[in-house]
Specification:
It is built from no helices and 33 strands. With 370 residues, it is mainly β. The chain has a five-stranded mixed β-sheet, with no helix packed on it. Strands 23-30-28-27-24 form a five-stranded mixed β-sheet, with no helix packed on it.
Length: 370
């Protein structure tokens, strides 16, 4: 392109000649330079007297071609410690690059492979467009994030109910350490369940594993997941239990008194109820009693019961009475002999028992007088 207004020189006075055509201006070379010759073509003349003239195209024109400015922006990126290097990218305005021109070279980042040294600067390295461009490079960073290590082989320990949600965790090995890095698994691992109650396959949440060692700063640790444990009922014992003596009642039922529970966890509500049974229903001394006590209360489901042993009690005979007899009045006869009317019957026999009334009855007044 040119500046200024083109004008014809040499037209005779009174002649009509006009300058026209479609002019083209061409540098002698396309590259950056100073005072580069410019060739002009395409001017023509017209008008009433144009036939009397010839036209010489302008000569001696020069101009400068200066470097084209372009801004290249590096892309911010990241990687996990130990992972492969990501591709380093850059962007620029498409309109800034002349059609047919291409970049050469590539981006580079500052050396290093530790989380502590992150981020590492990304620079243009050998990226170039030659002398026809001036590059403004906007750098970026590559961030290295810690690699997450997992713990394998950890075990949650089954246990008896103890009134807490605590579960012991044992074992564990680090998985995922890069190469010969020095990373050691440590800490104080502990597990917990959602509630304290007895259950099978209860989900365990693990905390407390940690890592140390020369390269530990390049890593994070994920606590183990998917662990389960069983909480089984705690066995309680009974002290002070006594089987009560009783009179025969036709059953094997036994009453147990004085039973006190031993081993209930603090804060739990557990009581003991129930009784026991004799081996048979019959009268006897020091008859063995089998306890059949049961647990009750809000927390009873977390316990099992060891029944007391060695209990015994007496079953004594039940006193029966005779009914249905009436003493008959008599005239004085100097004796205490008496008679009765009615039919004697037993009262108090337990249902299902077979007991008959027999013998040779004698009825006697307390005194012989009227």
């Amino acid at each position: 392109s040119v500046s200024g207004t083109a004008a014809l020189s040499g037209v005779e006075s009174g002649d009509t000649v006009t300058l026209g055509g479609s002019s083209t201006f061409t540098f002698a070379s396309a590259g950056v330079g100073t005072g580069i010759a410019v060739t002009v073509t395409g001017y023509s003349i017209g008008g009433t007297d144009a036939g009397n003239y010839s036209l010489t195209q302008p000569t001696g024109l020069t101009a400068d071609i200066t470097a084209r400015p372009i801004t290249i922006t590096a892309g911010t990126t990241s990687k996990t410690y130990g992972a492969a290097e990501p591709a380093l990218s850059f962007s620029y305005l498409i309109a800034s690059l002349v059609t047919g021109d291409t970049f050469t070279g590539s981006l580079v980042r500052a050396p290093g492979e530790t989380v502590a040294g992150s981020p590492y600067a990304i620079t243009q390295g050998t990226l170039s467009l030659g002398s026809n461009y001036t590059i403004t490079f906007v750098g970026a960073n590559l961030t290295i994030t810690p690699k997450t290590l997992t713990v394998t082989g950890a075990t949650a320990t089954n246990r008896d109910y103890d009134g807490t949600t605590v579960i012991a965790i044992t074992g564990g090995t680090l998985a995922g350490v890069v190469g010969s890095d020095t990373v050691t698994l440590g800490g104080s691992p502990a597990g917990s369940v959602a509630d304290k109650n007895v259950g099978t396959g209860k989900a365990v949440t693990v905390t407390g594993y940690s890592i140390s060692g020369a390269d530990a700063a390049n890593y994070s640790i994920a606590q183990p997941t998917g662990l389960t444990a069983d909480i089984t009922a705690k066995a309680l014992t009974i002290t002070g239990a006594t089987a009560a003596n009783r009179a025969y009642d036709g059953t094997t039922n036994a009453t147990i008194t004085g039973a006190t529970l031993a081993g209930v966890e603090s804060g739990d509500t557990v009581t003991v109820t129930g009784g026991g049974t004799f081996a048979d229903k019959n009268v006897g001394t020091s008859k063995g009693v089998t306890a059949a006590l049961v647990l009750a209360g809000a927390n009873a489901g977390n316990y099992s019961l060891t029944q007391p042993t060695g209990l015994s009690a007496n079953i004594t005979a039940k006193a029966l009475t005779i009914t249905g007899l009436t003493a008959v009045n008599k005239i004085y006869d100097r004796t205490t002999a008496a008679s009765v009317s009615g039919t004697a019957a037993l009262s108090g026999v337990e249902s299902g028992d077979t007991v008959t009334l027999g013998g040779s009855s004698t009825f006697t007044f307390a005194s012989a007088g009227v």
